[in-house]
């Protein structure tokens, strides 16, 4: 097994560092959040040449919604979002675009909380997710 077929901590850390140190605070609705989305789209497009037996689709979606009332710091709050950006990577076998085969979801958010560059919340999860996807793509069997 070659090094590129293995999970590389250095690769996951490079993505984490690019988001938390390179871009910094990534609050929802800010230019840094948009920079993060563009960075992730470019990073994921770079995986398109890894294998020729699968198709990769990088999708940007804008979502609107809310998630009811919750308690936070002894206050009742409601989370409402408008045009929240999600970046998706969809990997499908080229010979079976309507596949019913089992799949895996790798999920993380790339925005950060107020007052933090968000290395552990949640740039590190994005880095690990990217590296898992890259590793899966690097292993044809």
Describe this structure in words.
The chain is an alpha+beta fold and 141 residues long. The protein is built from three helices and two strands. It has helices at residues 9-23, 31-45, 119-138, and strands spanning 54-72, 75-93. A two-stranded antiparallel ribbon has the order 1-2. Strand 1 and strand 2 (75-93) form a beta hairpin. Helix 1 (9-23) crosses helix 3. The longest helix has 20 residues, at 119-138. The N and C termini lie close together (12 Å).
Give a short summary of the structure:
The chain is 35% helix and 27% strand. It has three helices and two strands. The protein is globular, with a radius of gyration of 17 Å.
Number-wise, the strands total 2
**Biggest sheet, spatial arrangement of strands:** 1-2
End-to-end separation: 12 Å
Q: What is the helix fraction of residues, given as a range? A: 25-40%
Mean pLDDT: 88
Written as H for each helix and E for each strand, in order along the chain, the element string is HHEEH
Helix segment tally? 3
The major beta sheet can be summarized as: 2 strands, antiparallel
Approximate shape: globular
Radius of gyration: 17 Å
Proportion in β-strands: 25-35%
Unreliable sequence segments = none
Structural category: alpha+beta
